[in-house]
Amino acid sequence: MNTRGTAPKQDRSRATRQRLLESAVTCLAEHGWSGSTVTVVAEHAGVSRGAAQHHFPTREDLFTAAVEYVAEERSRVLREAVRPGRSAYEAVETLVGLYTGPLFRAALHLWVAASNEPQLGPRVTALEARIGRETHRMAVELLGADERKPGVRETVQGLLDMARGLGLANLLTDDSARRARVVAQWARLVEAALAE
Amino acid sequence: MNTRGTAPKQDRSRATRQRLLESAVTCLAEHGWSGSTVTVVAEHAGVSRGAAQHHFPTREDLFTAAVEYVAEERSRVLREAVRPGRSAYEAVETLVGLYTGPLFRAALHLWVAASNEPQLGPRVTALEARIGRETHRMAVELLGADERKPGVRETVQGLLDMARGLGLANLLTDDSARRARVVAQWARLVEAALAE
User: Fold this and answer.
1) Which of A111, A112, B36, B175 keeps 20 to 30 A from B164, CA to CA?
2) Which UniProt keywords apply (chains A, B) (predicted)?
C-alpha cells in the first residue's frame, strides 16, 4: 500500500528544492563562489548530495536557479513596496535597499564568478539583463516617473546604478550611516529632476 | 670584480617588482582571485617563483601591493584630469572612467575575495578607505564643488557611488552605450545641483 500520496511527495520535493536554493544563497554570500560547492550547499541544507543532484544536476544549474530565486525575492520586495502615497525618499530608500543585504551579496559573488567562469557567464548575463529590465520597470512605477519626458529614463537608470554602487560600498564595511545621507540628498535631486 | 653595480641592481629589482604588480592586476582581472596564485603571477611576469617571493613573501602581500599600485595609477589618471575649463560632462566622464577597465576589474575581484578571506579583509578595507577619501577629494576638485554648501558632499558621494555601480554593470557585458547616456544626464543633474 502506498501511504505516500503524490501531493505530499511533491510538497516535500518542493520544500527540499526551496531549502537548497536558500542554502545556495547563504553559502554564496558567506563563502563566495569558490567555497560554495554542491556538497557544501547540500550539507548546509541538510540534504544528501544525491538528492541535491536530483534537483540540480550541475553546480551551474544550482547557482543559476539560486540567482533566479534571488531575483524573484527582490521582485516580491519591490511589488510590495509599490503603494500610493510614498515619498521620493521612501522610494529611493526601497530601491537602494534591494542592493544591500545577503541577496545582493550572493548575486555579487555570482556576477564576479561569472566573469571568469565560461560555464556560468552566459546564464548569469541573460538573467541579469532580465532582472535589470524588471527592476527598472518597477523603479519607474515606484517613483511615479514619466519616461516619455526626455532624460527621465537615464535619471532612473543612474539612480539604480548608484544603488548598485552603494551595495558594493557596503560589501567590506557597514556603510549605512553614509548611505542614509546620500539617499536623502539624491532623493531630493531625483524628485526635482522628475518634476522638471 | 663586481660588474653589477648597486644602482643597476636596484633598477632591475624595481623593474621586477613593477612587472609582478602589473601581472598581478592582469591575472586578477582575467582569472579572478581563486585563479591568481603567486605561481600564476610569477609565470605571467616571466619571473621565478623564488624571485617573486623575495619581493612578496605571501600571496596577501602581493595582492595588497597590487591594489595599492592600482590606487596609485587611478590617482595619477585623476591628477592628470584636473585641468581648468573642463565641463561637468568631461568631469563626470573622467570619474566614471575610473570604474571601468582592467584596473577597476582587478580591484573588484579583490574586494569580493576580501569579503570572504580573513587574511585579506582588513588590509583591503583599510586601503579602500584611503582610496575612497582620495577619490572624493579629487572629484570635488574636478567638479569645482564647494563642500561648505549643504548637500554638496552627498551629491559628490552619490555620483561616485553611481560611477562604481556603472563599473559593476560593465563587468559581464559591454555597457558603454547605455553608460554614455546615463553620464550625459547625470552630469546635467550634478551641474544643476552644484550651482544651486
Assistant:
1) B36
2) DNA-binding
Local structure of A117: helix, strand or coil? coil
Q: Is the Cβ of B37 closer than 8 Å to some Cβ of chain A? A: no
Q: What is the pLDDT of residues A26-60, one digit of tens each?
A: 998 888 888 899 999 999 999 999 999 999 999 98
Asked if A56 and A62 count as a contact pair (C-beta separation under 8 A), the reply is yes
Residue B122 has phi, psi (to 5 degrees) of -60, -35
User: What is the count of residue pairs from A and B with beta carbons less than 8 Å apart?
Assistant: 126
Instruction: Identify whether the C-beta of residue A162 lies closer than 8 Å to the C-beta of residue A102.
Output: no
In angstroms, the CA A138 to CA B149 distance is 33
Structural domains of chain A, count: 1
- How far apart CA A128 and CA A136 sit, in angstroms, is 12
CATH of the domain at A33: 1.10.357.10
Tell me whether residue A122 is in a domain.
yes
Q: What is the CA radius of gyration of chain B?
A: 19
User: Which residues in chain B are contacts of A136 at CB distance < 8 A?
Assistant: none
Contact between A22 and A16 (Cβ < 8 Å): no
Q: Say whether residue B163 is in contact with chain A using an 8 A CB cutoff.
A: yes
| Residue whose C-alpha cell is 503524490 | A6
- Residue at A73: amino acid letter: E
CA distance A34 to A170: 21
Residues of chain B with pLDDT under 70: 1-6
How far apart are alpha carbons A100 and A161 in whole angstroms? 13
User: Which CATH number covers residue B92?
Assistant: 1.10.357
Residue A4: the pLDDT is 52
Measured between alpha carbons, how far is A110 from A117 in angstroms, rounded to an integer? 10
User: Of A36-45, A97-106, A148-157, which gets the smallest average pLDDT?
Assistant: A97-106
